[in-house]
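Researcher: Please translate sequence to structure tokens.
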Amino acid sequence: MKIAASLLGVSLTGLGIWHSIPQKLPEPVAIELQGPLPTSTALTPTPRSRFTPTTRKGFYNIDVVDDFTLPATKTVTFCGAGRNLHVQQDRTKLFRRGFSAIEQTRMVPNVEIWVDGDQPKGWKSTLRPSQRSLIIYQDYFANSFGLGWARNSELAKDVTYRPPANARTMRNTLFQASSDLAGGCYGFGDCSGDGWKSTFGKLFLDIENEGTSAGNQQEQANLYTFMAKTIKANVSPQTEIGSIAPVPHNSFGNSKAEHYTVRPDWLWNMPAKHTATSKQRGMPDDILGKSFSDYVDFQMPGTYYLYPDFDYSAQHTSDADRHWLASLLAEQEVNRKLSSKKRIAWHWTFNTQSADFPKSGKAEHPAPPAVAEGISIFYWFTGAYGVLFWDDHNQLTPDQPSPNDPQQKGLGNDRNYACYEHYIHGMWRLFKHHGDLFNGKETYLNEATECSYDGGKTWVAYNANQIKTRDLPFVRAIVNGNQILVAATKAYARPNQNTQVMMRYVQNGYTFYTTISLKGDEIFLGRATMKSSGRS
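Model: Translation complete:
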């Protein structure tokens, strides 16, 4: 997880690439409507589940909604807290509440993954490969293989890629650490006799050592490229790999205007090249000219939230201000243009820890209801492929007395997990009722969504930063054939505040206009069948 300096948006690389390119996009041009305003077509609001959010500590009710599953084109891995609350009653419940995979540490021992010594002959996991995920943390490299580089990137020049051909097997090499992941098939009982390959559906790297000094960047790029290639060679053809970092661009939740003009961060696509000592340390020639981005299957742009993102009394409309929805959308808007790789974000519905921001020292603040629900709806309007739903706690024991130790208050069992209920409710609203639209034929409008804020006189398409700094309602849409799905909200609005916004779609043979009425900061979701304009 990203904390401390990373969340401040501090550059850890010392690069100044932003100074050589435009710092801001040109202002979008408002289009004046010619002639009378076309007839408006009402959107059919998506149902909401009626439930009373839990007030119990260390607990959430996974049955605030009924059964639903993700479309085959999307994926959500559960690495959250509290699977133990319901797994004894129904091991499959998570898969019927919008999650499509389980991270290894949340799997049921000896049912979903074998952990107790030798397996009984013929034992097989109950999980299909697509339902299996693994996070590979920094400690895997540092503790199991003695690679101090995982904690200190300045040691990149000391890392052995692979041992010399005439040497005994060396465990503390990047090759050994990366290739040993092939043994991931053993826990599922499906290793092949002709060579093991990992049968996890997804491998998520979480090393977080990407920042390094300018003179060390080529060594770092070489290692990341070699690591990704070696891992890819030791997994099944169905296994996808990616990493929390590097990503094409990390905005650290700031959603600034200048982020829309950046180039990809250096470590994402810097080509491997021999250094003075790389050959002696075993770097192969077959990665020359290749980069980390050439071998991974998905990128992982996203942001963890700080308490200011959840504080309705704070300012959220300046360029550098934190804003829960602007950061969610902007991170995707920027990165989808920098790389065509599929996107999977880490989602955590509590504030991440950062002593640099007031009330953010611990993760005791849950996302407010509209924020938790909105994250799980608006994110999918960006065309993203998946989510890794994460928490820093695993098992939960409800209704525990508050700890006497102040350092333990607000953590784990002492938290209120109603934010999980709101998040699942958002996924239910979207995929239970509109899963048919996510069939691979849909178009995501993103910042090309055209809106009118003056009653239909002029129409303009804004990116997330431009909406934030103008303090306007957010609207995003998905089009699939003659169907249009629209999400809208006035972020941070007061409960009694009413807002209207108009949205239109005028292309591909359709002319569709609608007016959306918003109450407070509720998340509006609605769908309509568009009529053909007779032009294409």
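Researcher: Any highlights?
Model: The mean pLDDT is 93.
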